[in-house]
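User: I'm preparing a small set of examples for a lab meeting where we compare how different chains pack in three dimensions. I only have the primary sequence for this one, and I'd like the structure in token form so I can line it up with the others. Please keep the answer compact; I'll paste it straight into my notes.
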Amino acid sequence: MPGLGPGRRSRASGGLACAASLLTASLLASAPAADAACSASDGSGQASNCDTVGQLRSYLLSASLYDKNVRPSEATQGAGAAADEAQVQFYLREVYDVNQKTMIFKASGYFRRWWYDARLAYDNAAFPHVDVAAVSSDVWQPDTYVENSLSFALGDKLLRIYPDGLVWSSERFQLTAGCKMEFQKIPYDTQDCIIEVSTYSQNGNEVVLVPRKADGVDVLASYDPAVPDNPEWEIKIDTEGEALMLDYSGTPWSVVRVPLELERRSLYYALSIIVPGVLFNLMAYMSFWMDRKPAPARVAMGLIPMLITVNSNNAVRNSLPKISYNTWLNDFLFGLLMFNLYVMVSYGVSNFFMVYEAAVANAKTASAKMRAAVAANKPSQPRVSVMDRMRAKAAEAKAAAAQPESPVKLSLSVTEGSGSSTPFSPGAGAAPMPAAPAVPPGAVVVEDVEPTVAAREEEP
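Assistant: Understood. Below is the structure token output for the 460-residue chain.
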């Protein structure tokens, strides 16, 4: 309390505590009298003459009329009665976290249940319903839990009783559960996350669970898909729950499977991955309209889009679990990567032919320079082909073979001493040879020798 010292504050707080204790004691003392007054004036047991909600609540939950440990149908029909039916529904407020890598989602909202308990029916028209949240532990309730949850925390609770005996329970919840996701169609995929609700201590012979009005999942009336709580996922409300009866060790257990349908918002992936990938791929193809000679420019225009595509593909892979199947988005990026690889390979092939063409051009230039140098150092002569040369040689050989052979003439004169000589003829009938000139004594003179054909034949 402001303005009071420590001593005064302690005395004031002690006085308030004392007053609260006295008020509580008076309320507890007056409660049985109120119950007695509410029920004594009506023999039907319907508490039609209760004046306050507190009196009606105390009457309905009085220990003499109600036993929370006995289920409703068994209390009215005895042992072996039919199972009580309870409806369940998840009234979602938001799905605020969806981790697709760990396949876990988190949601919050209100967990609702409906069942009938004839012991709590009343006919007092002055009270359309009775709220018993403060004493909800005194009311029989289905023992429900979420079977596939990692955590399921319940918070504030509302428990309401209607005149016909209908009991409605609503509790704030925060749920963390696993979800089996399939990513083949990412980013145009829809995930069906199943929430399984079952009873823990009450088997199927005692309690049967069913989804509320066949949906099992609803969203707040203020939920607007255009302004979502989760920017990546949109909650779909046209889902239907499924009631099952499963057998565990010969005992039936009631289970309700509530599908939570989440549809991915694909605009983020379109603007950050798909459209940039296509634009960079077109940029790579622009290199085909560039000159082949500037290699750095063409290599950069082909390599940069390839690296960006690989980086985008790795980013998508890192956001997913280690799956062993292809997804639409990964296949799309792989196709872009193949186109970029084609650009690089085509440039490599064109560069090879460019080098080859340069080598051929250099060889032609060198040959032309050599021919020019030879032509400058030698007089110009008519060019004769090899065939013409061969024909000329063949004609010369033919002409030589057609000419007659001349006879061989041999003349030898030997002069000794006196200086006179006697001509020698190889054979009779040969033509006389002219007289040889005078030669000094002792000299040997050999005249021109032209052997005849006969002489060549006689040679050994």
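A couple of notes for your slides: The longest helix spans residues 328-377. The chain has a mean pLDDT of 77.

User: Perfect, thanks.
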